[in-house]
Specification:
The protein has 5 helices and 18 strands. The radius of gyration is 29 Å and the shape is elongated. About 7% of the residues have low confidence.
């Protein structure tokens, strides 16, 4: 009887301890949020932010999994990776999303992640901001500006010590995804003697079709669309400081002499205003993914005069 009571008590003790350990790993969302220090905009991160700093709160992996999906970390650390997690900071948008910055420190790789939670503190999406890996010379830097635009820059040096970068800018939208709004780089493409015009051979029956040219590397081409209210266009420009832009699309007429480019999934809006001898281009909004940072789609382009076949024949006959 004593032996039976002892075994029952031991089983009860083990069960209670197991339940207590499970309960200890579960915390309320508000308590999880409180582990992250509040940051002020704008926020900047570089390689130095990946080291553990005094005051960083250690986050147990079970606590992290309770609020953040494993898939956020798997691309860098794999399913079996076991990095140490630290709370690096938070940005809370009133009645909207919450941005959490989490350091994941492994033996050969260190990553700063951005995780987004909805107003009910449910995980929506995330991405790595800064990565430091043993044996990899690539450097990262990241900034969140006053409008919550997230910039991620990858930097490297060539053999001569010159620094090159590729910068991507994202914004978070209510659907729970980060949308790329701009991409820029100072690496550039090799300069060619001629710019390829992908719509050059298409028909030109509309009165405003043709080539509008400032020079060989700054021009706009218009070709016939599916009907008279639509024109296909191709723009290429190159300005000082290695700033260039290029874009192909369709513009719909909004009046007798004005056409507008808008496309689903592209924040860019361009306006074209025609005269009999020129076209003026104006960037209305959001075309950063098609050009460099310090220049925009703008300017007036004279129309290239087309020599008609009848004129060519008459010239030959006169000779």
């Amino acid at each position: 009887m004593k032996r039976l009571l002892f075994c029952s008590a031991l089983t009860l003790l083990i069960t209670c301890n197991h339940k207590n350990s499970e309960n200890e790993s579960k915390i309320e969302p508000e308590d999880f949020l409180a582990m992250f220090p509040t940051l002020n905009l704008p926020v900047n991160f570089a390689d130095s932010s990946l080291s553990k700093k005094h005051g960083d709160s250690l986050l147990g992996p079970e606590i992290v999994k309770q609020f953040i999906s494993d898939t956020l970390f798997q691309k860098q650390f794999g399913k079996s990776g076991k990095p140490r997690f630290y709370a690096a900071g938070k940005l809370v948008v009133k009645k909207a999303e919450t941005y959490l910055f989490i350091k994941a420190l492994g033996q050969t790789k260190k990553v700063l992640y951005l995780a987004c939670l909805d107003p009910d503190l449910h995980f929506k999406t995330g991405m790595p901001l800064v990565i430091r890996e043993e044996g990899n010379e690539m450097r990262y830097a990241s900034t969140i500006d006053n409008k919550y635009a997230v910039s991620i820059s990858q930097l490297h040096r060539d053999a001569e010590g010159k620094t090159y970068f590729v910068r991507a800018v994202y914004i978070y939208n209510p659907e729970g995804v980060f949308t790329l709004i701009m991409m820029e780089s100072n690496q550039g493409k090799p300069r060619t003697t001629q710019v390829y015009n992908p719509i050059d051979t298409l028909s030109k029956k509309h009165k405003f079709t043709g080539d509008y040219i400032q020079d060989k590397r700054n021009f706009i081409s218009f070709r016939d669309g599916k009907n008279n209210s639509v024109l296909r266009f191709f723009v290429h420009f190159e300005k000082k400081n290695n700033c260039s832009g290029e874009m192909k699309g369709e513009a719909n007429f909004t009046s007798a002499t004005s056409a507008m480019y808008r496309s689903s999934g592209d924040p860019c809006t361009l306006q074209f205003s025609f005269t009999s001898s020129s076209v003026s281009m104006k960037e209305i909004q959001g075309c950063g993914s098609h050009r460099g940072l310090d220049c925009i789609f703008e300017g007036t382009y004279p129309k290239k005069k087309q020599v008609k076949k009848n004129e060519q024949k008459s010239k030959k006959t006169s000779k």
